[in-house]
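Regression check, adenosine-5'-diphosphate case 508:
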Amino acid sequence: MTNDEVRTTKYEPVIGLEVHCQLLTKTKLFCGCETKFGAEPNSHTCPVCLGWPGSLPVLNEEALRLGIKIGLALNCEISGRLKFDRKNYFYPDLPKAYQISQYDMPVNGKGWIEIEQRAESREQRENQNPMPSALCSMAKRVGITRAHLEEDAGKLLHEGIKDGSLVDYNRAGTPLLEIVSEPDIRSAEEAYDYLTSLKAILEYLEVSDCNMEEGSLRCDANVSVRPVGQEKFGTRTEIKNLNSFKAVQKAIEYEIKRQVEMIEAGEKVSQETRLWNDDTGKTALMRSKEQAHDYRYFPEPDLVPFSIAQEFIEGLRKNLPELPQARTNRFTKDFGLSPYDAAVLVQEKKLGDYFEACVKEKANSKLASNWIQSELLALLNTAKKTIEESPVTPQALAGLLRLIDNNTISGKIAKDVLPLMFETGKSADAIVKEKGLEQVTDTKLIEEIADKVIAANPKSVADFKSGKTTALGFLVGQLMKETKGKANPKLANEILSKKLASLKKISK
Ligand code: ADP
Ligand code: MG
Ligand code: ZN
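Current build output:
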């Protein structure tokens, strides 16, 4: 067996993710300081978030509201009874030497996320191995253990500073929701799919910027492996310093391999925290893992336990927006898209919005889905633009697609028109008229050209007569060339077939 085979047949990875999501509030969790990113260092601070003696925290109601909204979207049990606790540890960017978090009475209890397993269907698509669409995006449920409120720490700056380090407390006290998954994830790709599904939900809820670079979405990965068939989990390591979803996937892949190799070599995996290094593509030991009791959690005496009225929770439930899963189902049902295509469009809210705007302008929905996902995204990629910055508006794209749909131009010609629209901002109609690209559907004209093509290519005609049907494709190609791609391909094919068939009969 090769090492890869040992890894995949003898061992099963077990993964649980902890995601910290910065909540999009104007002010911090327990004081009135602004949360704006990128402000002058230490300009958004006060006695509460700097931990001065005698200062008292007051819970931000909006943070609570956003936290519950996320819990509702993640199908969490919400008892409405909650408590805050102090998690004690010293860090220079944590001025109180404790973090206010939630220990045993979190705002959101057990829940689940349904993830689309797109990694596999992506592969199948690339291998051009079409699966029945129902199988293409298989859903799997990943359990949520809890999702609790806590405050963020400040930030230490080490880089480019000669003597010592600097500390910025602007982020200290910013509201976070820590979303802890059950150890239900079984591969690095599944972890990636979990994160993209979760991010999509958060974006639809408009509760966070979800910007990994700015740190408004952070993820730690817990990874262990166990022999296939064994019920008991192996010892896990926790990986930090993951700056993108791709990094999460790569780090997990690395860590699975590292652990299997250790076990195969007769060594023991030890419970520890490891740091991912994106440059080397490896994880390295940071510290051995502390246990919950090391933090000496105890109830925050300055914030008493409290209950939320059920009406408050139900009010939030009623006002939840349409979520990705529901939108995906609607796209397949109302627009006839495959689950895969629907999921791709829905994943990024703005992409879904673009598609819907396009369909609203009477574009054929399947054409719209294909053109957005292939031609338009490719152009945007090259131009390094987001869908919102697209020079081709949904209305303009719909204009182009209508021309394909009503046979004014062929799909092939349309592929040349779209880049021109992208460059010039002109409408499809204008470009088609200007360049005289309207499709030739004049049967008589096509017949004339077909005769010309037949006369000019006696060898192919002879081939066809002798049974080489591929010669037809060549002749159609010649006809298209003659018309600069403007002949209606279906008509061209029909007319040539008919003419060749009659030639065959004559020669018999
Ligand atoms: P901690 O405070 O130690 O980080 P948490 O309860 O906050 O503990 O998070 C633990 C995370 O580790 C959860 O996502 C859980 O699913 C995951 N986990 C627990 N045991 C294992 C294991 N043996 N292998 C992989 N992941 C695990
Ligand atoms: Mg944790
Ligand atoms: Zn403050």
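Comparison notes: The CA atoms of residues 311 and 317 lie 10 Å apart. The mean pLDDT is 92. No diff flagged against the previous build.
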